[in-house]
Amino acid sequence: MYSVLIVDDELSIREGLVTLLDWESLGYRVVDTAANAVEARHKAKLYSPDLMIVDIRMPGKDGLELIGELREDHEELHILILSGYADFSYAKRALSYNIDNYLLKPVDEEELQLYLTGLATVLNARLAHRKNHEAVKVWSREMLVQSLLMESSLHPAPALMESALEAGLLWESYQIVLIRLLLQDHADNGPSSSVKSRLTSSFEDNRRGIVFALDSYLGVLLEPSYQKELISKRMAEQIREAAAAEGLECIITAGDMVGSLRELPVSHQSALARMKDHFFYDEPGMIGPDSLKLKQGLPANPQDTESRLAPVMDRLYFALDTGNLLVISALIQEAGDLMAAAGSSEMAVKSYYVRAVTSMSGKLSVHYKELSAAHSRMEEQIQQIYRHTSLPQLQRYITGLLEEYAGGIIRDDMDVLMKRMVDLIHRHYDENLKLETLADVFTYSSAYLGKLFKNTMGCSFNTYLDTIRIEKAKELLDQGCKIHQAASSVGFSDVDYFREKFKKIAGISPSAYRRKEPEDAFSESAYEKD
Question: Where does the record place a coiled coil (predicted)?
Fold first, then answer.
């Protein structure tokens, strides 16, 4: 819609013109009216109308004086004069002010409509030309930035520098911001183009920077006046709002600030490096030169990393089982720190956490039926794990998830420390149970916890655990299991050590026990040792 401002000192004329036509059907909208030249000047600045319909004779400053002042600020403003028959010669002199036309009062509806139709054609052509001109200008600046970023030489070609000068790109400093749109399963001319258009309106139109597309990223070359605002969150908010308007999320990284155009690739490469490692930053907005990266070291042997993670996961599982929520966050972070220090990739970290969560959820739901509903949502929870774009954010999500699991367990009178330990032994005798692990879970020293256990149970923790294991092994042997199968099933990885413990506790070797014969009746060595 093109805007129209009507100026006349007679209220009846103003109201009559407003209701005379169906303005919208002709492509116009009457934004306001004015009763005199002073009011008209104020409203012209306020609305910047495309057309003003002005009466020549008004009290105080007349229409010609008003038109002369308007022309100083608005050369392209279209003006239509309203004139009485007695003012005909006066109106003709007004044409020297580049007036479009004049209409005699009372205004003829058909004549005015014909004029407006012709003016709409002129305005449409001007608007199309302006858009094309702006598009070419923006496109040229974008291509120039792309060329500078892909320039491998430290000394860009003279023609490129001359183009940069003509485009007004010789600034005091430069900084590249890269934007990666997430979950985009569309063609390049889809949402990404719409996001780019929104960013262009925000940055180009306000002279904050030049928006460009390069490889799989959108980017902004920031002008010096806007680089200082990197310390605020406003720029990241604007970019995220543009992406969110198209239903997308994004990752934003800023490169190092440089002082010349030939160093522009340096800023670009540092932004790319941060984009590559974005997962290891705890930065909810834009990852920039001041953002702190989580510690990463040289790639380690995967087996070494796994062996260091195993006891952490053991402690985590027992913490969940005993309801000790206070240590869950620290253990999740410890596991993440180990993987980051080992140089694990984003996908490797996520895959490990997925395995850990699914394993713990499965084991807990076996012992606690009330967790079966939570375990059934596992697929959705795994998808959420893979969607997280930051390790600290992912750790917070997993911590909340596991705290929900632990909080959903219905516990009875097992809150008494020794009863909880005994219950753990009876349910997890076949796992890598250690007093040191439980001491961490219950936040006691291992020596003190061991002393409490012995005073309460009458034997040491290890003796009690071995006794339970041997009793379970007897049951398996009674069922026909071979000795090595029984040993492995109750937590012994060394068969010879199992034989030694079995004989010490049961008073008979496992082979003799299987035959249900006294130990001295036969020599174990005379029989198959399984």
Answer: none
